[in-house]
Amino acid sequence: MAAAIKNPGWWRGLFGAVAFGAFGFGLVIALRAISDLPLYQTEQTGYPHVIVPAITAPLGFLWGFGCFDYWLRWAAGLPTIPDDHSQHGAKSWKDYFKFNTDHKVIGVQYVVTTFIFFFLGGLMAMLIRAELAQPGTQIVEAATYNSLFSTHAVLMIFVFVIPVFAGLANYVLPLMIGAPDMAFPRLNALSFWMLPLAGILFIGSFLAPGGAFDAGWTGYAPLSTGAPLGQSFFNLGVQFAGASSIATALNFLVTIITMRAPGMTFWRMPLLVWANLSTSLLVVAATPFIAGVQFMVLFDRALHTNFFDFGAGGDVISYQHIFWFYSHPAVYIMMLPGFGIVSEVISTHARKPIFGYRLMALALIGIVVLSYSVWAHHMFVAGMFSWLRVPMMITTLLIAVPTGIKIFSWLGTLYFGKIHTYSTAMLFALAFIVTFTIGGISGVMLGMVPIDIHVSDTYFIVAHIHFVLFGGSVFTIFAGVYHWFPKMTGRMYDEKLGRVHFWGTLVGTWGTFIPMHWVGMDGMPRRVADYAEQFGNWNLMISAFAFLLGAVQLVFVYNMVVSWRFGPKAGANPWRANSIEWQVSSPPPIFNSTEIPRVVGGPYEFGIPGAKHAIMAGEGTEGAEVPAGEKSVVGTSP
Amino acid sequence: MYGRLPIVKMLLVTIALTVVISAVMVPINWNGQGASTAAPKIDHLLNVMIVLSSFVFSLVMVMLFYALWKFKAKPGDESDGEPIHGNTRLEIAWTLIPTVIVLFAGGYSWKVLDDIEDPVKDHLTGSVFSQQYAWSFAYPGKDYVWSEGELHVPVNRQIQFKMHAMDVIHSFWVPEWRIKKDNVPGITTTAIVTPDKVGTYQLVCTELCGFGHATMRAKVVVESPSKFKEWVDGLEQKLPEPYMDVLKEESVTNPPALGAGGA
């Protein structure tokens, strides 16, 4: 037992969580005791004896689990333990439950963890649709309903869509640029382990007195500043998810900028790398805003600061400005990596170079720049300074231009190609083009102030965000998972089941989210547990399709789990793709390759005889000699 | 190389599809009954967008399905496609044309926005109070009179609502008027509307405000000026103290609409 506490791992993690949690709790109680205050402050928004341990216990777990060990020893001047790479790579399934610094292990950890949250969030969506199948109250009360849709959105956004892209990129991006790992492997592991903690805080809020947070994922003040304890769990969970996301983005930026294989210029990077470069630029600059604004809410709640207290000179609308200054870029954080995935999949399966590669990369950068200038389009009816509406409308509409460039370029890529549709990944990528076009069109309509005034905060919005987030982001996530499944597991998934999953998802998505546009325009507000009789039939139909959509995801789980264990072995390059990750074995060797590849051409040179993207180790060195200094490979990260 | 594509046929199919989708969608009254002077303008803007969007959607569909039909690989064909990397003229076209379309949409929206928010001198002012989970309304006269859960307004006259939230944010929406505005605690927001059809409508709260949000409704009655006067005269309750205080503190932080000259 003593050894278990001494060595980093689950036992010491548990011990750390308990010890740090007890320390936080004791600190609050002691300070209150010496200040002659009642020991437990249980006013609705107070509970310092819960909030402080909710901060310290996760940190204690991270310490105990070993996330900080190397840095702490180094900072304290202790001899650091020489890195023998025992924390690198996975020899058995048990290694996935350890602090591991291998980007491929971390990638798998990310994807599996985030999919667990996807299914929990999906379960909540099923409950929401069950309640909404008929007008009136059936299975959950209004207050519980508010908690359900709030938690659903928060799980999907903060611990599924944003991090699952980080997970997929974690796995494939270093391989794609010919790097042995990410730039900061320990930071990478820390980023991952903060994520389940965020998810646990979000879900754990259901146990708090007063129930889970129920002010929507937007958590507008002053509804959130006065909400029960669960809201504080949201404020804190966002900190962990946000810190995870920022650290990963920094890691990607440094990795992409400094660790590309020799010869890989910016204009030779696959578009997935471009997409993650753009996304990371958004994350590092925008995410601090949501972290900050959630701290402000937490301080208003627990420390009686008055940021948003209108009775004490606070400004209610400023919450929305700060929130959306993150949360609008966040929709691109949730979409740009998907654009990257779709580019890889379509080019490979159409056997064609990406049409207008440079403009595709520039369009990503254009979206990054524009996305910082559109946030107030979420606030056209919020009572903000009204002149702000027109410039925000114009920038919002203009963002359709780089997005349109991407759609047309993907279509252009298909022309004069040899389109293969045997892969489920390609089906999702093609369907994404269609559903995302619809979501883009409704987005342009929402960008127009007069239309937005009518449909703002109605089911039209719900329809729009699900078309871009489910029909958009989630379709690309499925495309990515199917596309790189053989690479990650070394096995093939079942294409027949993949097709069942694809068609069920497509029909379910359209059947669920298309009619939502109609009921919204016709007068049904969003975030309601009950609604007027006239929308009853449509909602019943929406729920029926939603259940289909939910059920067919089980086919996906079955396919993934069974194929991972029993699927036929996949070769190194089942899709005959060009990028570097397909030139190594499936799954790739530890440190990705015995020698750093040399990049000699663009990533999508299909149809050009003899053209090559990269020369791998062991292939003849025709072309150029590798300078001796560039040959060393294995794990030299400090 | 694009001479090899039946561009004219593809465009014709796109236009035909646009016409069919528009012909089906434009006649449908998506936003429901309209009952203000803003409603037909917003609905017309929507219809213009439906036609433009149908064109964009049809174009994408025709491009996608033609490619899938024409360039699908034969089973067993392992060869690659043609190494076409792009076409500068085409790329410029699909950058510039959408820019023109969205700028047109933006300009048109701006004009409609100016139109529907154009304040007139001879308007009526009404006050809206929202709190969890009820609406109340005050009518200025020699004194403020007050009604709870039921708003009356005269037909064919512009009304400027001054809105106040007493606790959390609520939002004022009468779908038939196509007008929505948040009520924000601490500040006064304004909504301008000219009802033009006599009838009874529903006021819906559209900003999540707590467990009673879904049922936070009020009745809206649009009636002839004489009936409206009769109704206001019949109101006996004066505006209660806390609301009066809010009115006295009224700070118009929401500036007048564009074109009204204020800032």
Secondary structure blueprint with pairings:
The complex is a heterodimer of chains A (638) and B (263).
Chain A: H1 2-6, H2 10-34, H3 48-65, H4 69-75, H5 103-132, H6 142-176, H7 185-204, H8 230-258, H9 271-302, H10 316-333, H11 336-350, H12 357-371, H13 389-398, H14 400-414, H15 424-447, H16 449-455, H17 459-489, H18 495-521, H19 536-566, E1 598-599, E2 614-615
Antiparallel strand pairs in A: 1-2
Helix pairs in contact in A: 2-3, 5-6, 5-7, 5-19, 6-7, 6-8, 6-17, 7-8, 8-9, 9-10, 9-11, 9-12, 11-14, 11-15, 11-17, 12-14, 14-15, 15-17, 15-18, 17-18, 18-19
Chain B: H1 7-25, H2 38-70, H3 88-116, E1 124-131, E2 134-139, E3 145-148, E4 150-154, E5 159-165, E6 170-174, E7 179-183, E8 189-193, E9 199-205, E10 217-223, H4 225-234, H5 241-248
Parallel strand pairs in B: 1-5, 4-10
Antiparallel strand pairs in B: 1-2, 2-3, 5-8, 6-7, 6-9, 9-10
Helix pairs in contact in B: 1-2, 2-3
CATH class bucket of the largest domain in chain A: Mainly Alpha
Main sheet of chain B, how many strands, which sense, barrel? 5 strands, mixed
Say what oligomer this is. Answer: heterodimer
Estimate the global geometry of chain A from the Cα principal axes.
Answer: globular
Task: Compute the number of structural domains of chain A.
Answer: 2
Tell me the fraction of residues in β-strands of chain A, as a range.
under 5%
Distance between the termini of chain A: 32 Å
Can you tell me the CATH architecture of the largest domain in chain A? Up-down Bundle
Quick one: which chains have the greatest interface? A-B, 92 and 87 residues
Helix content of chain B: 25-40%
Low-confidence regions of chain B: 257-263
CATH topology of the largest domain in chain A: Cytochrome C Oxidase, Chain A
CATH topology of the largest domain in chain B: Immunoglobulin-like
